[in-house]
Amino acid sequence: MSSQSGLELRAFAMNDRMQPQFAAFVGATVEGDPPLAGMAQLYVEVGPGNEVYRLADVILKSASVRPATLAVEREFGLLEVHSVDPSAVQDASDAVQRHLGLDQNQRLRPKVASVQVITNVDPFEAQLINKRRSGALLVPGRTLLVLECTPAAYIVLAANEAEKAADIQIINVTNLGRFGRLLLSGRVDDVHAARDAAIAALEQVEGRDW
Fold first, then answer.
1. How far apart are CA 199 and CA 210, in angstroms?
2. What would the pLDDT profile of 190-201 be if each residue is shown by its tens digit?
3. With 163 labelled, which of 9, 38, 173, 175 sits at a CA distance of 20 to 30 A?
């Protein structure tokens, strides 16, 4: 849904407690302040993309949070803020909703676009994936999960909840653009558990239907 200014709230996602691998991945790949495991964080995706600059201004002047990501791609803008104090992240959440004149449940609901589980990954495929990963190396013979959702920002919920649920390795997380993608690996049973937890986290998000 759009606010009176025409700004669309596409995604509004909060992680209550960042898991170690996910936090390490974010910290290694962002240009802003790197978060730490255990911190709370908020991701907001809006359109048009340039509106994210005003949103960052409002949040950072209203709450004691630090920004890790402020990015604009072709259509949408993405902002991430975090804090060791969950109440500060809640203050940021409240500031977003006041600024937009929208309730968080007027965001788009995430939609799972595709799910693939590949067992006994071939060494050549593993090498190709490793060329473009920013997280753990994909070891040949392990099981690989590829999960895609839209809006893209919600993939961060899937990644964090997958790590809570199972002993897996995060290979890559892409949260900007039209689709978000998560690649993780592990033993077959662990990957299945991670997949189920990731999908459940997305399905539990309330919002407006497409």
1. 18
2. 999 999 999 999
3. 9
Residue 210 pLDDT grade (very low, low, confident, very high; cuts 50, 70, 90):
confident
Q: Using the 8-state DSSP alphabet, how is residue 153 labeled?
A: G
Helix (H) or strand (E) holding 189: helix 188-203
Give the span between the Cα atoms of 16 and 84, in whole angstroms.
Answer: 10
> What is the residue whose two structure tokens read 């060494």?
123
Q: Identify the pLDDT of residue 92.
A: 97
Distances (CA, A) of 152 to 85, 120, 127, 195, 202: 26, 28, 25, 17, 11
Q: How far apart are CA 195 and CA 177, in angstroms?
A: 22
Contact 55, 101 (CB under 8 A): no
Answer for the pair 47, 5: CB distance below 8 angstroms, yes or no. Answer: no
Domains in the chain: ranges and CATH: 8-106 (3.30.70.1710), 111-203 (3.30.70.1710)
Q: Are 77 and 40 spatial neighbours (Cβ–Cβ below 8 Å)?
A: no
Residue type, 19: Q
Q: What type of residue sits at position 96?
A: V
* Three-class HEC string of 65-106: CEEEEEEECCCCEEEEEEECCHHHHHHHHHHHHHHHCCCHHH
3-state class of 132 per DSSP?
Answer: coil
Label the pairing between strands 40-47 and 8-15: antiparallel
